[in-house]
C-alpha cells in the first residue's frame, strides 16, 4: 500500500508584492545609496536570471509554479535553458565563461566551492529542507522524484517487468532499450545493472564497473541512445523502444493514467532535484532570492499542482497535490528504493562518466 504522510492537501498561491511596488522601492534605494539592486542592473535594465534545468514537462511546470509569479513579485525575469552535462559545465567554469545563474545539475565533485556559490541561509530557509545527501552549503533541493524502469505496454505484448533483471533480458522481453546518456541517468542505469546482478539497496555502491558493464553489454546490440529525459520518455511512449529509465514527472505529464506506458517501481532510485548558483554568476543576490522563493514554505508545494513532484520543504509535505499520491517516491513503502548516491558520485563521477562514455562509443 502506498501512502504519503497521510496526505490531506491544500493549494497555496500567495504573492506578496506587485512588481511595480518593488520597482519604486528599488529606484529609491538606488537614488539613496548609488548602488544597483537585484531587480535592475547597474544600467537600470531589468535583472534577468538564466536558469538551466531538465527541460520538457519540468520546465513548463517550473515556469508556472515559480518563475512567472516570482517575476511578478520581484521584477526579476527568469530565462530557461537546458542544463549542461557536468563535463560541459566544469569546462565553462574553468574557462571563466559562466553562461548560467541557477542550475539544476548533479554535481560530480567533492570540492563544490570551486563550482558553485555558497547558499545564503539567511535568505533561504535551509533548515526546512529534507535531509538528502545532496543538500549542502552549495546545493539544495526543490522537489523529490523517483527514477524507475519504464516500458511500453503494447511493445511488451501485455507482459510486465518485475525487476531490473528484466531490463537486461532480451529473450524474455525483446525490443530496443532506451539508454539516456546524461550524468544523472548513467547512475540510474548502473544502479539497475548492479541490482540485476544481485546487489541490494545497501550494497549497490561502490559500483563494480566491470560487473555493471557486463550486464549492460547484454542490451548493447539492441539499444537507442537519447540525450535527455523528455526524449527518453517520448521514445518509450511512442514505441521506438520498449523499455527505458524514466523520471516519474515526465511520464505522468504524457501518460498520467499509465494506459500506454508502465512503471516498474521495484528498485527505483529516489532523488532530490538539486539546485545551485553557478560559480561566477553576475546575479548572485537575485539567484539567492529565486532559490529562496522556490524552496519556501509559502511556494514550494505549488509545483505539485503542475507536475508529479513531492515538496522538498518538510514543513509543507501535507500540502502536496493529492492527485499524485501514488506517484510520490516518499510514499512508496512497499517496494525497494535506493536513494541516489550523491556522496559516492561526487567522489567518483568523472571516472564513471568516462567509463560510460567509452562503453557507449565502443
Descriptive overview:
Its main location: periplasm. Keywords: Periplasm, Signal, Transport. This is ABC transporter substrate-binding protein. GO terms for molecular function: thiamine binding; thiamine pyrophosphate binding. One of its GO terms (cellular component) is outer membrane-bounded periplasmic space. The structure is a single chain. This protein folds into two domains: 19-144 and 273-324, Periplasmic binding protein-like II (D-Maltodextrin-Binding Protein, domain 2, 3-Layer(aba) Sandwich); 146-271 and 334-361, 3-Layer(aba) Sandwich (D-Maltodextrin-Binding Protein, domain 2). The radius of gyration is 21 Å and the shape is globular. The strands form two sheets. Strands 1, 2, 3, 4, 7, 8, 9 and 10 form an eight-stranded mixed sheet that branches. The protein has ten helices and ten strands. Helix 5 (183-196) crosses helix 6 (209-216). The protein has 362 residues and is α/β, with parallel strands linked by helices. The longest helix has 20 residues, at 342-361. Strand 1 (48-53), helix 2 (56-74) and strand 2 form a beta-alpha-beta unit.
